[in-house]
Amino acid sequence: MLLRAGIQSYMKYMLNLRVTENRTLNADYCLLKLTHDEVLPAMLPGQFVEVLVEGSPTTFLRRPISINFVDKSRNELWLLIRLIGDGTRQMAAYRQGDIMNLLLPLGNSFSMPEIKTTRTLLTGGGVGTAPMLFLGAELKNRGIEPTFLLGARSEKDLLQLDEFRRYGRLFTTTEDGSAGEKGYLTQHSVLNKEKFDIIYSCGPKPMMMAVADYACKTETECEVSLENTMACGIGACLCCVEDTKQGNVCVCTEGPVFNTKRLKWHD
Question: pTM of whole model > 0.85?
Answer without folding.
Answer: yes
